[in-house]
Design brief:
This protein is α/β, with parallel strands linked by helices. Helices cover 40% and strands 13% of the residues. It contains 16 helices and 15 strands. The longest helix is centred in the last third of the chain and has 27 residues. It is globular.
Length: 477
């Protein structure tokens, strides 16, 4: 044991003996030296030793046995794991962290309330056909073989069902063997980052764009290059005249997140030509493709031409329910094995029982019927929210409208030269009982627009009315 002048000797002896006991260096039943011998050995007074031992006895770490001596207690006190230890300051800890962890410590961290109306990305869970889902679960719950491992690629019947659905609804060209089941969209993007990126490689991302994708690329220490948006989403013309070279381009062409633009067919073909010439892989996140209200969505980039440099991805978390944590990738045949191998290193498999239920949900037509019903429900909610914004936020904010999806972005207007602080606005809105995400949160560069992203899927009529009235009051202050 060592002592210094920073604390009383009694406290230091108490803490060090307690640490020895809790760490197992002094085992239960171990006899301690007599207080006189311990004091002589440590070079401190016997009174100091007796005071420290008395405190340890009082707290249950030590026990006296008449005529025998002092022993470590056979049963330690319940609070022993919470003993005060030598505290490391932030300065002590930081050098032991990775460069990436130290980078994270400097970044803003935004969490929205998942249970609040207007929280983006939350579907209308009250409309989910739970009785059908439960019936399908009961069908499979006694199938013991579903309780084991079924490979990193995913449950074969689900991949077969997905293959048929994607071909019919999105024009995706693939075989079931090209589909890899993931734990949601985030794992799908992370797999792409692992397979394609080395530290320092460049990745083109929409600006503003999906923050989760940027996080996955930054984990691989990639260099993020922001791409300007046009009226329909990614500005393909500007990209075509840019000499930048990148390994990947991540985009949400069917419903740009968060602004909502929809890339036209001609722009998609132009983008495919650009990607082929520049040898850049496109990660096509087909976010919200299921919910276009007034026209059928344009076919996926992946299926618009043969041998396209496209990795297609999607998720069930938004169209069914978030707790499902189920997504998928469609990759070229030549890359299937390396993606599966990468997934085996990453870990994280979706339960086979869940995959079996989703496979039946698709095969028996429940999925398409559910989407058709939700499309009508969300269209009604979207129209109602648009009307409220136009009439009650007139002059204060306007929607960045696109007739699709589960969310709507609004841009706030200010009469002052200073733009509105949308982070403070989002927090005030949350304090009033409503969720949202500041529009500035999605920008990689200083934001061009300020406002809020409002998820309307999980709102009721009264929620929408009260929420927009609240925004009107907050913006009018």
């Amino acid at each position: 044991m060592t002592f210094d002048d920073t604390q009383p000797l009694q406290k230091q002896l108490y803490q060090q003996l307690a640490d020895y006991i809790c760490s197992g260096r002094l085992l239960p039943g171990t006899r301690l030296p007599a207080s006189r011998a311990l004091a002589t050995e440590l070079g401190i007074s016997r009174n100091t030793v007796n005071l420290a031992l008395a405190q340890l006895k009082a707290e249950g770490f030590l026990q006296s046995r008449p005529g025998s001596g002092v022993y470590v207690s056979d049963e330690l006190p319940k609070h022993s794991q919470a003993l005060p230890r030598t505290d490391w300051t932030a300065t002590d800890i930081t050098p032991s962290l990775s460069d990436f962890a130290q980078y994270l410590q400097q970044q803003p961290f935004f969490q929205h309330g998942q249970d609040l109306p207007f929280t983006p990305g939350v579907p209308d869970l009250a409309a989910f056909p739970l009785p059908i889902w439960n019936r399908l679960q009961r069908r499979h719950q006694d199938r013991r073989r579903l309780l084991g491992y079924h490979g990193h690629q995913g449950y074969a019947p689900l991949r077969t069902a997905l293959c048929g659905y994607l071909a019919a609804s999105r024009g995706v060209r693939c075989d079931p063997e090209q589909i890899i089941i993931t734990q949601g969209a985030q794992q799908a993007i992370a797999l792409c980052a692992q397979v394609f990126l080395n530290p320092g490689d460049s990745v083109l991302v929409e600006n503003p764009g999906y923050v989760g994708a940027r996080k996955a690329f930054l984990t691989q220490m990639a260099n993020l290059i922001p791409c300007t948006l046009g009226a329909h989403g990614l500005d393909v013309d500007k990209l075509s005249h840019n000499s930048v070279e990148a390994r990947l381009l991540y985009l949400t062409p069917t419903h740009q997140y968060p602004l909502g633009g929809i890339l036209s067919a001609s722009e998609r073909l132009q983008l495919l030509d650009w990607a082929s010439r520049h040898r850049t892989w496109l990660i096509e996140d087909d976010y919200d493709s299921e919910f276009h209200f007034f026209q059928k969505p344009i076919a996926a980039l992946q299926g618009m031409a043969e041998h396209t440099p496209v990795i297609y991805m999607g998720s069930f978390s938004k169209v069914l329910f978030p707790a499902l944590r189920l997504g998928y990738l469609v990759v070229p045949k030549a890359l299937v094995d390396v993606f599966i191998q990468a997934k085996s290193y990453m870990g994280g498999e979706s339960p086979t029982l869940t995959q079996a239920v989703v496979a039946d949900f698709i095969e028996e037509g429940h999925f398409v019927r559910h989407l058709r019903r939700m499309r009508l429900i969300y269209q009604e909610k979207w129209q109602h929210l648009q009307t409220l914004i136009d009439t009650r936020l007139n002059g204060l904010a306007s929607s960045i409208a696109a007739s699709a999806g589960m969310h709507l972005a609004i841009e706030t207007h200010s009469n002052d030269t200073q733009p509105i602080d949308d982070k403070a606005l989002s927090q005030a809105f949350k304090n009033a009982g409503f969720g949202s995400t500041p529009l500035s949160f999605y920008y990689l560069t200083p934001p061009e627009k300020r406002g809020l992203v409002l998820g309307f899927a999980n709102t009721r009529t009264t929620d929408r009315e009260q929420g927009i009235n609240t925004l009107s009051r907050l913006l009018g202050q």
